[in-house]
Specification:
Blueprint (H helix, E strand, L loop, with lengths): L1 H6 L3 E6 L2 H10 L5 E6 L4 E6 L1
Antiparallel strand pairs: 1-3, 2-3
Length: 50
């Protein structure tokens, strides 16, 4: 939890409704540090640092 607290000022979230959109964004932003990727039944959530 301390890791998230120290990075909280720079965390960003992207929400995608399908895998194609998520893959396209990830390819276009390949140098972006990804913290986590979460999957739900309807969305893909990508947490990254700014």
């Amino acid at each position: 939890m301390n890791l998230f607290n120290s990075m909280a000022d720079s965390l960003q979230v992207k929400i995608f409704t399908n895998e194609t959109e998520a893959n396209q964004w990830l390819k276009q932003n390949g140098d972006t540090p990804i913290v986590a990727i979460q999957f739900s039944h309807a969305n893909i959530l990508v947490i990254y640092t700014d």
